[in-house]
Design a protein that fits this description.
The complex is a heterodimer of chains A (116) and B (110).
Chain A: E1 5-7, E2 10-13, E3 19-24, E4 31-37, E5 43-50, E6 53-56, E7 65-68, E8 75-79, E9 88-95, E10 106-107, E11 111-115
Chain B: E1 4-6, E2 9-13, E3 18-24, E4 31-37, E5 43-50, E6 55-58, E7 61-66, E8 71-76, E9 85-92, E10 98-100, E11 104-109
Parallel strand pairs in B: 2-11
Antiparallel strand pairs in B: 1-3, 3-8, 4-5, 4-9, 6-7, 7-8, 9-10, 9-11
The chains are: A mainly beta (116), B mainly beta (110).
């Protein structure tokens, strides 16, 4: 039973390029969350999705960032026209119906984005 | 200030107990969590506590919750070098999301 799979593990982009981060949730999990971790900081919530629906995007920057979780395939976090401040570790988590308590959230190993 | 706060750093000798503290401001949380992050890795759920509990013990880990003071702690007994990592407390917020503290870096010295 594979855990939450994120790829790529490391991504280097030049300023102005696009970054696409992928997340495949655990089998049986229908809820996906994206978090961003800036250097030396904790994780900040970005967006919460179910299949084909964005449930909560209150943590997403208003411009350049978008997320989707299609009916088939992984969840994608897309960052357009990247800037140096986007350099961070991006973590995906998944959960079954509700993520609270014993079920918890299972995190992937993250994608470390470096903008040069 | 931040919703969830932790001290930045803790140094402890191998074999001693470690105590990592966390305070939060929002009392509406139903669950509070402790995660461990090793260098270059994702987050590993260590333990959690429901908000109507005072204490939870799981092998070397003891979680204490003082709901009145909004204070959460994680005690690691017999700390080992493999316990060196960053420890995050988090609270379950409305809408299924988590709010994290900034993390406490624990260094275990032999």
């Amino acid at each position: 039973n594979a855990g939450v799979m994120q790829n790529p593990r490391h991504l280097v982009r030049r300023r102005g390029q696009e970054a696409r981060l992928r997340c495949s949730p655990m089998k049986g999990h229908s809820h996906v969350y994206w978090y961003r971790q800036l250097p030396e900081e904790g994780l900040k919530f970005m967006v919460y999705l179910q299949k084909e629906n964005i449930i909560d995007e209150s943590g997403m920057p208003k411009e350049r960032f978008s997320a989707e979780f299609p009916k088939e395939g992984p969840s994608i976090l897309r960052i357009q026209q990247v800037v140096r401040g986007d350099s961070a570790a991006y973590f995906c988590a998944s959960s079954p119906q509700t993520g609270q308590g014993a079920n918890g959230y299972t995190f992937g190993s993250g994608t470390r984005l470096t903008v040069v | 200030g931040e919703d969830v706060e932790q001290s930045l750093f803790l140094s402890v000798r191998e074999g001693d107990s470690s105590v990592i503290n966390c305070t939060y401001t929002d009392s509406s949380s139903t669950y509070l969590y402790w995660y461990k992050q090793e260098p270059g890795a994702g987050l590993q759920l260590l333990t959690y506590i429901f908000s109507n509990m005072d204490m939870k013990q799981d092998q070397r880990l003891t979680v204490l919750l003082n709901k009145k003071d909004k204070h959460l702690s994680l005690r690691i007994a017999d700390t080992q070098t493999g316990d060196s990592a960053i420890y995050f407390c988090a609270r379950g917020a409305a809408g299924n999301k988590l709010t994290f503290g900034g993390g406490t870096r624990v260094l275990v010295k032999p």
